[in-house]
Amino acid sequence: MAPPSKDPPNHQDADVRAVTDTPTVELPSALTCAGVPARRLKSGVFNGGVAAATSSEFFKSKSLWKPLANKWDHRLSKESKSRKASSLKGAAKYLAKPGIISLGGGLPSSDYFPFEHIEIRVPTVGQFSEEETKINGQDVRIGKHDVPEGKSAFDLAIALNYGQGTGSAQMLRFVTEHTEIVHNPPYQDWQCIVDVGSTYALDTLYRMFCERGDYVISEEYTFATAVETAAPLGVKFLGVKIDDEGLIPEDLDQLLENWDDQARGGRKPYVLYTVPSGQNPTGSTQGRVRRQEIYRVAQKHDLLIIEDEPYYFLQMQPYTGPNAPPAPLPATHEEFLNSLVPSLLKMDVDGRVIRMDSFSKVISPGSRLGWITATSQICERFIRNCEVSAQNPSGFSQVILHRLLDEHWGHAGYLDWLIFIRKEYTQRRDIILQACEKYLPKELASWNPPAAGMFQWIKIAVEKHPDFGKREVVDIEDDIFQASVGECVLLSPGSWFAAERGVKHTALFFRATFAAAAGPDMTEAIRRFSVALKRVFKWEENEQISV
Amino acid sequence: MAPPSKDPPNHQDADVRAVTDTPTVELPSALTCAGVPARRLKSGVFNGGVAAATSSEFFKSKSLWKPLANKWDHRLSKESKSRKASSLKGAAKYLAKPGIISLGGGLPSSDYFPFEHIEIRVPTVGQFSEEETKINGQDVRIGKHDVPEGKSAFDLAIALNYGQGTGSAQMLRFVTEHTEIVHNPPYQDWQCIVDVGSTYALDTLYRMFCERGDYVISEEYTFATAVETAAPLGVKFLGVKIDDEGLIPEDLDQLLENWDDQARGGRKPYVLYTVPSGQNPTGSTQGRVRRQEIYRVAQKHDLLIIEDEPYYFLQMQPYTGPNAPPAPLPATHEEFLNSLVPSLLKMDVDGRVIRMDSFSKVISPGSRLGWITATSQICERFIRNCEVSAQNPSGFSQVILHRLLDEHWGHAGYLDWLIFIRKEYTQRRDIILQACEKYLPKELASWNPPAAGMFQWIKIAVEKHPDFGKREVVDIEDDIFQASVGECVLLSPGSWFAAERGVKHTALFFRATFAAAAGPDMTEAIRRFSVALKRVFKWEENEQISV
Predict the structure, then answer these.
(1) pLDDT tens for residues A283-325?
(2) Cβ distance A244 to A284 under 8 Å?
(3) Is the pLDDT assigned to residue B2 strictly greater than 60?
(4) Mean pLDDT of B303-325
(5) How far is A389 from chain B (nearest CA, A)?
(6) Which chain A residues contact residue B515 at CB under 8 A?
(7) What sequence ranges are listed for the domain Aminotransferase class I/classII large (chains A, B) (predicted)?
(8) A200, A490, A517 ranked by CB distance to B390: nearest
(9) Mean pLDDT within B229-244
(10) Chain A residue closest to B168 (CA)?
(11) Exposed end of chain B (fewer CB within 10 Å): N or C?
(12) How does pLDDT run across A102-158, given as a tens digit for each residue?
């Protein structure tokens, strides 16, 4: 596979070339929302009973012309290699025998689940706001025995019993189809696993691929929890330099090219952890070409890529400034999907990307339900972990999300919801940007309009501080933090997100989120932060600030 | 603390002696369901907002006269010792400042949680059956903003946002009070943590206390998942002999007394994993004296005890045989609680018991919500794990269970529900016992009426098999298993539950569950099993079977 070209046309699929031994075969068009019913018909009878064994293979389009994924045996940890399938779960195959009565498994009877039904009031498609839902929302009923009564593909009797490490067949089908619609991975044997959230998935992936003393590579500023999850396992983070588009591929390449086991005290890293869209904390988004370059370096050094993408659907409208009208929203689903930067998964011809998706930022964090997409080999090892640990997401979460996403909204309605979220986050981002422009002195602070995510990353011109060079940067950072708290505003100091702990900081940043606070509060918060900042820098108000 | 005496009166608290420096103080009476409102009043204002930091300490009765728990630093693994609190979570303390606006944390706004309310149809106290719930159940509404509207202590805006590794304050309060009502641990600094289920908790506990090469001790037949969770971590199980009351303390003592690191290839074990009530797979229940003896051995060898108790509230009525009337159900909550064998936690003066509780067998497995009870030190280390892994149970599970258990039923109603479950399981057990008596030839099969749980453990007289001594016991076991499948019935072979894998079996068992199948199906299943058994043993029908 040739590396991706540097200058692709806009808004098209990554330049993945289909590889096939039978070049005369006609390739079917990619799955769309409208194509899902026909796709399901092709899959035959849906098996979604209590603890039904399931797999994405049942729910994907066949794509025999795509290459098979690489194998990763040489990257599996001792722990992961030694995992065996559960002996009791092995007996499940006998349950398929007609007429069999099982006294085998320890599944309790649904007779004693004290829930006759659940009803959820959820938005009608196109009327998504909280206010509209109160008035025009739909009441969707989830019964205990909806499946035998022919009312639904999922019910409480199934969802509230034990399940499989894959997640339920129902949710797995939805996320598999969604993944195919959005990313359509260019290798054959990709699968999804429904999990209890990306933090759990990340912990599991470290344990699957790393041994004590190993390094994981990431952006130089990164999601603090990713570092803190790794540390107790003896796994250290190494930061790669970033620019406005996030991780710099040349720096990644140099780091690996010049790797010295002895000097580094560890073997050459082979796991890259990256947040390509709306990166936490910097808010940067890798463009399409940037992603292709990163992927090419990963191929060169045979890296596994953990693509952590909670903010993928928080890609926003272009920032048009305080006085220009907003850019028009995507008019169709096709336009919407084409507006998104293609994921690393979408260009992953080798099966080296393990993508983590999450509903936390687009539905609710408390669902504790996400999914990974990876090769069938990696998914199989991942399931072995789940079944002797978190098992599978809550049945309440699974059945409620399934009813909402699959049966109430459907794939098309869910994309409409995501466009709604895009609009809302664009508005929120614009509020914080306008506040920054209004209140922050340009001499002391600079920032880029984030293209995705929920974070505004503000660079502080630490070199303008009277004590610069005399005191540590983190001490000046702490002064600003404490002064901000004094002014009744909380922003997160950039040093908290350093990939490498204990490193001497030369630059100074603060992270502000525009996800949570109401609009006027955000504006006021930035005003207060500005007051604190100026006080710490002993900076005199002057005419450069427009009030 | 003297070891428990051997001959205690029936149905009373374990003989725990309160230790105090101020013996004149008047000890308050133990917490009861009726005492909960007064208890809550004493705690002051309830803090249960979004991701509120919380602790059992807020919800327990003060008990300064009790001893403090032992410290377990010397037992913590390298991984656990090195865990640090999250830096971002540390900033949460500033949120308490009045008037502060936070742009710090990445919590999304509840405006975009697409759930206006959830309504659950649940049983009215005293009318617990599925049929009664359909007709007389109550519809309980959970709104998005119930807390600011003064309708409840918990709502969707809180439950569906991010949470803490402790679980929500609301559920933690309920399980803490429940634990105090039922077990009232005899040391001061016990706490609970709400987790995503006992399988996850067990995985976490192994990682907290074991290193590769370590042994965990358990009953010689044990929960297969407990063994399979440990194996990939390099942790091996060692089985202790059992009798009708489960684990034999003398055998445990001998094993530890005679431990030889060299011969065993590992250091002396200090973790005991045990299922005291309705043990899986043997159905055995440790009596009160047995538990005291086990605890005494644990004290002698300074063991940590993982008390896995999913079946604690599946302690059933005494078995009265096929023709006698059933024993009357407990008439009061006090009578009910006194009818339960006291837990190891209840006699744990040292803080060496880590109890795992579960709603899986008494509410529903799909809740994926359980809790541990242990010393504050162990709980703190456990939380550090949760917050960089599974985080906390699903918000849907938490808010639904809280509304049902805490606000709809209350503690008293929940005990009523547990008495209902007791009655139902007693009936189910009696059906399988009667089927065994009717169909299984006494020459080939023997069993005890289980006092708790969901399993009937059937011993097969393998020595009566024509090939006994010529073929391996597991091969004869497999013949019976295959013949059973041929007869359309599934029971689980005992060898699947061996604590030590690869050991030569001399006895032969099958496990049947009476939790799932309908009554007539269970009876038919045992009849079929009997046919298979007799065929494999070439056993001729004779007059000894009453038909």
Answers:
(1) 999 999 999 999 999 999 999 999 999 999 999 999 998 888 8
(2) yes
(3) no
(4) 94
(5) 4
(6) 106-109
(7) 192-528
(8) A200
(9) 97
(10) A366
(11) C
(12) 999 888 999 999 999 999 999 999 999 999 999 999 999 999 999 999 999 999 999
Task: Answer whether A491 sits within 8 Å of B104, measured CB to CB.
Answer: yes
* SS3 state at A541: coil
Q: Is the pLDDT of residue B348 over 70?
A: yes
Query: Looking at residue A324, what is its pLDDT?
Result: 85
Q: Where is A307: in which H helix or E strand?
A: strand A304-308
pLDDT given at position B7? 36
Q: In terms of DSSP H, where are the helices of B406-545?
A: 410-439, 473-486, 519-536
Q: How many CB atoms lie within 10 A of CB B519?
A: 15
Token couple for A23: 């070049």
How far is A221 from A494, CA to CA, in rounded Å? Answer: 8
Q: How far is A343 from chain B (nearest CA, A)?
A: 23
Q: Which of B158, B368, B381 to mutate to test the interface with A (most CBs of A within 10 A)?
A: B368
Q: Closest-CA residue in chain B for A487?
A: B100
Q: Please state, in angstroms and rounded to a whole number, the distance separating the CA atoms of residues B285 and B277.
A: 4
Instruction: Choose from A154, A396, A495 for mutation: most chain B CBs within 10 A.
Output: A396
d(CA A471, CA B163): 37
Put simply, the answer to whether B79 touches A404 (Cβ < 8 Å) is no
* Domains, in order of start, for chain A: 33-82+112-420 (3.40.640.10), 424-536 (3.90.1150.10)
Reduce the DSSP state of residue A102 to 3 states and report it. Answer: strand
Q: Which residue from B minimizes the CA distance to A492?
A: B104
3-state secondary structure of A36: helix
Q: Which amino acid, residue B103?
A: L
Chain A partners within 8 Å of B384 (Cβ): 232
Cβ A341 vs Cβ A183: under 8 Å:
no
B397:A392 CB<8 A: no
| pLDDT average, residue stretch A238-245 | 97
CA–CA gap between residue B480 and residue B493 (Å, rounded):
9
3-state secondary structure B170-235: HHHHHHHHHHHHHCCCCCCCEEEEEECCHHHHHHHHHHHHCCCCCEEEEECECCHHHHHHHHHHCC
Q: Is the CB of residue A424 less than 8 Å from the CB of residue A514?
A: no
Distance from the first to the final alpha carbon of chain A: 56
| Mutation site, A78, A101, A492, interface B, largest B CB count within 10 A | A101
For A436, the token pair is 């920054």
Contacts of B107 in chain A (CB under 8 A): 365, 513, 515-516
**Closest partner CB to B82 (pick from A139, A231, A421):** A231
Give the chain A residue nearest B368 (alpha carbons): A394
Q: Coil, strand or helix: which one is A392?
A: coil
Question: Residue A91: pLDDT band by 50, 70, 90 thresholds?
Answer: confident
Could you tell me the pLDDT band of residue B90, with boundaries at 50, 70 and 90?
Answer: confident
Residues of chain B positioned with their CB less than 8 A from the CB of A155:
none
SS3 B447: strand
Average pLDDT for A27-39: 90
Chain A residues whose CB is inside 8 A of the B97 CB are 485, 488
For range A244-272, the mean pLDDT: 97
Write out pLDDT tens, residues B388-419: 999 999 999 999 999 999 999 999 999 999 99
Mutate: best of A368, A447, A481, A533, partner B, most B CBs <10 A: A368
pLDDT digits (tens, 9 = 90+) for B180-225: 999 999 999 999 999 999 999 999 999 999 999 999 999 999 999 9
| Chain A residues within 8 A of B162 when measuring between CB atoms | 360, 365-366
Task: Read off the pLDDT band of B541 (50, 70, 90).
Answer: low
